[in-house]
Amino acid sequence: MQTVETKLARPLRRGPLISLVPLVDVLLILLVFFMVTSTYLDLNIIRLSGATANSLAASPNPAPSVIVSLDRRGLVRLRGKELMPDELANAFHDLAGIEPRPRIILLPSPRASVQSVIAVIESAVVAGLPGVELVEPRAE
Length: 140
Fold this sequence. Notes:
alpha/beta
């Protein structure tokens, strides 16, 4: 009598494959969500007064403009850099030394306090800058 041992060949069990497709789907959905819900600075809100617009159109070499934004907490941004009040005064003094002297366009938040707006205007006047154009705040 012969004994025959038979070994059954069983395939090796592999773990489940992790697919990256759902990860990519989730990332694309998040990207679209953040793009839709983000707010962007709209520089088209700048409305120049009639006198300023006419003087800019009449002069062949208008003075450069520097945009200063003021948020509701009173923080000032000049050329994208957040400045403290003493730093703002120094920056205005540096700008006053440039020829032709630049115009300051102030973009306050609708919720900015009147005192913070006046403080920025006062800093520009003390530094000797020719004029500060206050742009009408846009509703948030």
